[in-house]
Structure formats: C-alpha cells, structure tokens
Amino acid sequence: MSSQDIPEEKLPAERDTTHGALGVADEKNPFADPGLPPHEHRIQDIDERAAKRSERTVALLFTLSMLATIGFIAAFVAIPVDKIVYVFPLGHVSALNLALGVTLGTALFAIGAGAVHWARTLMSDEELTDERHPIEAPPEVRAKVMDDFRQGAKESALGRRKLIRNTMFGALTLVPLSGVVLLRDLGPLPEEKLRHTAWSKGKRLINQNTNEPMRPSDIVTGSLTFAKPEGLDEHDHDFNNEIAKAALMIVRIQPDDIKDKQALEWSHEGILAYSKICTHVGCPISLYEQQTHHVLCPCHQSTFDLSDGAKVIFGPAGHALPQLRIGVNDDGYLEALSDFEEPVGPAFWERG
C-alpha cells in the first residue's frame, strides 16, 4: 500500500522541504534547482498496526542476536577444539570453528538487519534540505544542530518504542561478550600443565625407533639414542603435545668423564637422560659430538655440554637442558625415577 491509496485526511501533514528558489532548467539557467520530489508516505506512517509489525520484527532480530551471542559463548565452552564434523558441501570441518562462525555471524547480522529495518520502516524518511553555511559554527548553528538532534531522537521513536529500545540495548550489550570470550585464546591460563610431562616414577624408557624398552646394555658409549615414556603411543590424539614435552635423548659417557656431581647421581652407569627440547625456542636437539660430549641445536646453534649437566656453552639458550633421573627396575630395564625436576623447553614465562 502506498500513500496514493490512502484518503488525504489520514495522511500526516507534510513539512516544507523545498529550497527557497526553485526553477526549471532551460538554456538560460541550465542548473536550476528542481527541488525535492513529492514525499510518499510508507504504510507504517499511517497504519499503527503495520508499525507494530515492524517493531516486532526489529525486536525479533535483536533478540535473535542475543540468542546467537549466547550460543557463541556456549559453543566456545562446550565443543572440543579437536572435534571434526562433516557438513555438506564444506566437507570435514572443525565443529568449533563452524559453530563460532555461524553464531557470531548471526549475532552481527541480526543487529545490522534490525537497525536497517528500524531505519527504513519506523524512523522518519523525509528528506531535508539546508542552505550551505560558513565553515565556522556560530551559536545559532550549534543551537540548530541540537534542535535537529532532538528532533531526530524524537522521530526515531526510541522513547515510545520501548520493545525496540530494550531489545536493542540487550543485543548491543551481549554481542561484545563474543570478543571477551575470544581473549581466552590469547594465551594459556595460569595452570601448571606445562610444568609436568608424561614421565613419572616407574615408567620405562622406550626406544623411539624400535618401540622396545631399553636395557643398559643397549646403550653404547658415545652413542645418542632417543626415548619416549612407556604408554605413550603415536596414535594417541594428544601424542604430539605430550612428546613435545617428554622427548628424551639418552647418551652414555664414562662415569669418570661426567663433571657435574648431580648429573652423575641421576645417571645409571654413565647413562644420562636429558630433555631433547632446546631451552631457547623449543627446537628438537639431535646433533651430538661424542669426543666433546656436546650437543648442538640445529635451529640457532645453542650448544650444551652433556658431561657437565647439559649446561649452555654457546648460543642464545637461557639455561641447561633438564635432566631426567633414571635407574633400572627389577627386570633390568631403564626406568624413570621421577618426572623432570624443572619445566622443559623455552623461557619460564612461556611454560604456563
């Protein structure tokens, strides 16, 4: 329905929106001001029932935004980060990423759609013209701006349309919570999970190449062997996270060549077990020089002396490699006597 179908007595009074000087373009005056076209009223301007329908639509969109924001937070808390689902036609995707994207997109879209529908159907749509004025703003202009602002606020019907106002405030209040929740991924919570590894008292040392438990006789003097904790399988879903903390390198040195007293006490017949993770930025160490008992990190050339408590002798690493205290169980296999006494890997503040 348009204003042409409505009796004139039901139409709102028109405001004068024309310029002071109007004219028709001709050869003498090709740039004459034609003025504004006649204003056509919307159905919401003359039918309160239609206005109420639009009001409920806007409120529904704002409410949908609030529900989507709550869904975003619930998905972030409830859905495991490693859960994969199949969605046609996207294929296999992360359930968490999909849920977060859909809910946050819906929340933002609903706020925008509600605001647009509100402006197009309930706010005043009359075009106003004003003559150009100097750049400076005299008191009269400031007063006029405030009057226009108050007039615009009045025409928005924000005070009268309480349902729209309340749901809009609710949506605008809740949607920033999505960003607050995302702050959770900026870094680890203050926990102690990175202070501990899969090693514990009684766990046997498993050769990473053969997946067999290791005996002292398997370790040859001058050799370098890599080990993992018993029970840690490569097919476990958290294997990469656990091996990144628990990776071990085993070296055998003549007991008389071990300079550090604690390193000797924590060894077994000259067999030393150190963390394989460099204390600079966490690269795996694998280069061993058996004559000097030095190991070299291939990333930034940090060098550690395994015969002297794996202390740093060159490079940017900040501290020695943590040592694992080992012994032999009743069956003759090498086993851990405890977890590492200190966190493995890079600087303390990165360990959690």
Automatic annotation (TrEMBL):
Record's bilayer topology term: Multi-pass membrane protein
Signal peptide residue numbers: none
Subcellular location(s) per record: Cell membrane
GO terms for cellular component: plasma membrane
Domain Rieske: 240-335
KW Iron-sulfur (keyword) present: yes
Stretches the record annotates as Disordered: 1-37
Transmembrane annotation, as ranges: 58-79, 99-119
Cited PROSITE patterns: RIESKE
Entries under Pfam families matching the protein: QcrA_N (PF19297), Rieske (PF00355)
Compositional bias annotation for Basic and acidic residues: 7-18
Coiled coil: none
Subunit structure: The cytochrome bc1 complex is composed of a cytochrome b (QcrB), the Rieske iron-sulfur protein (QcrA) and a diheme cytochrome c (QcrC) subunit.
Role: Iron-sulfur subunit of the cytochrome bc1 complex, an essential component of the respiratory electron transport chain required for ATP synthesis. The bc1 complex catalyzes the oxidation of menaquinol and the reduction of cytochrome c in the respiratory chain. The bc1 complex operates through a Q-cycle mechanism that couples electron transfer to generation of the proton gradient that drives ATP synthesis.
Similarity remark: Belongs to the Rieske iron-sulfur protein family.
Protein name: Cytochrome bc1 complex Rieske iron-sulfur subunit
Source organism (scientific name): Streptomyces griseomycini
Organism taxonomic ancestry: Bacteria, Bacillati, Actinomycetota, Actinomycetes, Kitasatosporales
